[in-house]
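Recap from last week: sequence in, structure out.
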Amino acid sequence: MRYSRQNKILQLIRENDIDTQERLSDLLSASGFHVTQATISRDIKELQLIKTMTADGKYKYVEAGKMEQPISDRFVKIFKETIQSVASSGNIIVIKTLNGCANAAAETIDAMEIPHILGSIAGDNTVFIVATDPSHIVALMKRFNDLLQ
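Predicted structure tokens:
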């Protein structure tokens, strides 16, 4: 039971921005795991979960090794100076770059380790990004457009 509950916790924090043990408890209950706050606290410690700040200034639980890393100013500058357009269709985002710059743009995106991105493929002047679900496209597009500002 403990391992299945802890696997569920990992799934929940990957799919949701969970900022409190109470919210985690509610989501676990909705998934059929009825536990006390002490159990959740123990699970958090065993799983080595930590809280990190999101791009919008809120906190959320993440796996210690899976934190979103801040990207360097160099990557942001390269991204801003080489991107020509960002568009989407279904669960795919297409980023058009200057010739020869798609790999640098894709490296910037990969370095950000953004949740809900399955992966990216770069050509000479085009990057394809596959999202885990079309419902995440609006937030991902906003994040990329914010970087371009």
